[in-house]
Design goal:
By secondary structure, the chain is mainly beta. Strand 4 and strand 5 form a beta hairpin. It has one helix and twelve strands, in the order αββββββββββββ. It has an eight-stranded antiparallel beta barrel with strand order 1-3-4-5-6-9-10-11. The protein has a single domain, classed as Porin (Beta Barrel), CATH 2.40.160.20. The chain is 9% helix and 68% strand.
Length: 234
């Protein structure tokens, strides 16, 4: 039985080495822009829609190509978050809400890519990503048309936690988030341009008392990478 296991393991190892030997490896800089917003599912009274916030992404792209298919991980500094701007009318009173969340992450996507041509062609890609929160800032301003009029302002650095604290002026988010990317691209030699959409699959809000509010990130991203060959097919 042990001999059979050894033969199977040896066969798998040889297969993996054979596939790796036929791969073409490359890496290079990747720059891009994010258009980020958030989807909210709130049990509290504060229900609002977010607007897109523009941020940057920059890092290193890796690629292991197997003919028309490729595996492409990356390490990116990625700016996300959202903007808020809405007016709520309740009877004769009006509430104006303006705010923004600026969230900075280290993001690691892992995309599986199909290219229609060898050296150039259209691309389809999809894959998971995970991100780690570095820092962020949050600010908001609420104006109430009551008698007299009242304005409430709040601004602070973001705190990354798993359970929301008791400071009413602090803003809390979860540090680790995960999701999936899908998109289209085009490859022309070493240059690769991709347009993708990121679906956050984990709740980025920490547990909040009796409320079970949920918030998921959504990001439209456009990137350009230049990949240098570091290995070729045998």
């Amino acid at each position: 039985m042990n001999k059979v296991k050894g033969i199977v393991l040896a066969g798998l190892l040889c297969s993996m080495m054979s596939v790796a030997a036929k791969a073409q490896f490359s890496f290079g800089p990747r720059l891009g822009v994010n258009g980020a917003k958030a989807i909210l599912d709130c049990e509290s009274d504060d229900e609002f829609k977010t607007k897109m916030r523009v941020g940057a992404q920059a890092g290193v792209q890796f690629s292991a190509e197997f003919g028309h298919f490729a595996i492409q991980p990356a390490i990116l500094y990625s700016q996300k978050g959202y903007d808020i701007d809405y007016v709520l009318n309740i009877g004769q009173y009006k509430t104006t809400f303006v705010g923004s969340a600026k969230l900075n992450y280290i993001e690691v996507p892992l995309n599986f890519v199909y290219t229609t041509g060898d050296k150039q062609g259209l691309q389809l890609f999809a894959g998971p990503y995970i991100e780690y929160g570095l820092n962020g800032k949050y600010q908001e301003e609420r104006s109430f048309s009551s008698t007299p009029n009242y304005t409430y302002k709040r601004g602070s650095d973001v705190e990354f936690v798993t359970k929301e604290g008791s400071d009413p002026r602090a803003v809390y988010f979860r540090r680790v988030n995960a999701g999936a990317n899908v998109g289209l691209g085009y490859k022309a030699g070493p240059i690769q341009a991709q347009l993708g959409y990121g679906f956050g699959l984990t709740n980025i809000l920490p547990k909040e008392g009796t409320f079970d509010n949920k918030q998921y990130s959504r990001v439209l991203h456009l990137s350009l990478a230049y990949l240098f060959n570091i290995g070729s097919e045998e």
